[in-house]
């Protein structure tokens, strides 16, 4: 596949041929008629991991590395339930988790979801929290 660059952005206007729903419905088939006929569900209106990865590639071509990394992490999170994401978010708040708890979350993300970039970010957060004294204190 060709390398995506800023000329392809926005994909919804310039490269609809590359866009598919998580259930592989082509972007161009997401019509009101299809929805009214029950051919499109709310699950089809979610962004696919591949679309997020394409946005990461475009961002990277513009030198926007942090944005590209954010898109990659988002792509990894697609298959994680909203409730689990919220639990992880709360665990990442300062003084809410021990280092061991954060490292366990990182391992879970890596092993259960293949979310390597998210796991790396949580491990980094655990180290930063440790240095800054932001980990949950263990009561004796």
What does this structure look like?
The structure is a single chain. With 140 residues, the chain is mostly helical. It folds into 2 domains: 1-78, no CATH class; 80-140, Propanediol/glycerol dehydratase, small subunit (Hypothetical Protein Yqey, Chain: A, domain1, Orthogonal Bundle), CATH 1.10.1510. Helices cover 55% and strands 0% of the residues. The termini are far apart.
Computed CA radius of gyration, to the nearest angstrom:
19 Å
Q: Please give the count of helices.
A: 7
Strand content: under 5%
Unreliable stretches (pLDDT < 50, length at least 5) are none
How many separate domains?
A: 2
Structural class: mainly alpha
User: What is the molecular shape?
Assistant: elongated
- Total strand segments: 0
Helix content: 55-70%
Q: Quick one: biggest sheet?
A: none
What are the secondary-structure elements, in order, as H or E? HHHHHHH
Termini separation comes to 57 Å
Mean pLDDT: 95
Please identify the oligomeric state: single chain
Short summary of the structure?
The chain has 140 residues and is mainly alpha-helical.
What's the SSE blueprint?
Layout: H1 11-14, H2 32-36, H3 49-61, H4 65-77, H5 82-91, H6 99-113, H7 116-132
Helix pairs in contact: 3-4, 6-7
Features:
140 residues, mainly alpha, Hypothetical Protein Yqey, Chain: A, domain1, 2 domains, 7 helices
């Amino acid at each position: 596949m060709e390398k995506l660059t800023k000329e392809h952005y926005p994909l919804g206007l310039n490269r609809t041929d590359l866009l598919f729903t998580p259930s592989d419905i082509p972007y161009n088939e997401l019509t009101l008629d299809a929805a009214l006929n029950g051919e499109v569900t709310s699950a089809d209106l979610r962004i696919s991991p591949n679309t997020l990865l394409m946005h990461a590639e475009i961002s990277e071509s513009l030198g926007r590395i942090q944005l590209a990394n954010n898109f990659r992490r988002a792509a990894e999170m697609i298959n994680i339930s909203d409730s689990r994401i919220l639990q992880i978010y709360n665990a990442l708040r300062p003084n809410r988790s021990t280092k061991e708890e954060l490292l366990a979350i990182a391992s879970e993300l890596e092993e259960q979801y293949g979310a390597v970039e998210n796991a790396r970010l949580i491990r980094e957060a655990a180290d930063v929290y440790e240095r800054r004294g932001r980990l949950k204190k263990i009561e004796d």
